Amino acid sequence: MNEKVYEVSASILNIEKGKEAEIILNLEKARTDYYHIDVMDGKFVEKNTYNWMKELSSYIKRISNLPLDVHLMVEDVKSAIDDFSAVEPNIITFHYEACKSDEEVMDVINFIKQNNAKVGISIKPNTPAEKIFKFLPYVHLVLVMTVEPGKGGQTFLSDMVSKIEKIKKYSIENNLEYQIEVDGGINLATCEKVKQAGAEILVAGTAILKAVDYKVIIDELKK
């Protein structure tokens, strides 16, 4: 049986200003699978990183060939899809909670597909997994937030593990192909629990960027 392959999406939310090029290229050398772009509008979440992430993602696009994994924590989802489609992301993930109706959720899913990106749907810690089940046949990825979105460096919420298990179980029972990504407090101490629960893409920011050698951490996360 083939060994399971895990992927790493390196969050550049807390990248040190002035060291962008060095850090981005070091992440590429360390073989991160994606750059994770945390787009926040100051409304859906407190922090506002919108323009900085636009700048940074277009900069990454110029110096690296690695795919962009764009996570929209915004109220105006469609405008953000328009803005970030310019950098040709591999994945655009939006929040279920940003939509006011099921029709709006489906509308956003189709809009992302029209912009030639894979579709990710994300849920906050307080949103039950069941809320998004009906949309899962139409998406490529489910992003489970294992902290409250909007801040880097938070502590992993361990009761999210059962949510990952539910979403994994649903994919098996319904023969669906989506990947499960987890974001929030992921490090060498927490990654085993989420992998066992069914996560395949691990978003890590602080754990990688604070390490002396990015490759050591990324290799460990992928094991």
Can you walk me through this structure?
- The protein is an alpha/beta fold and 223 residues long.
- It has one domain: TIM Barrel (Alpha-Beta Barrel).
- Helix content is 35%, strand content 19%.
- The chain has eight helices and eight strands; from the N terminus they run E-H-E-H-E-H-E-H-E-E-H-E-H-E-H-H.
- The protein has helices at 20-29, 50-63, 77-85, 102-114, 161-173, 191-197, 206-209, 214-222; strands at 7-11, 34-40, 68-73, 91-95, 118-123, 141-145, 179-183, 201-204.
- An eight-stranded parallel beta barrel has the order 1-2-3-4-5-6-7-8, surrounded by five helices.
- Strand 7 (179-183), helix 6 (191-197) and strand 8 form a beta-alpha-beta unit.
- The longest helix has 14 residues, at 50-63.
- 41% of the residues are buried.
- The mean pLDDT is 96.
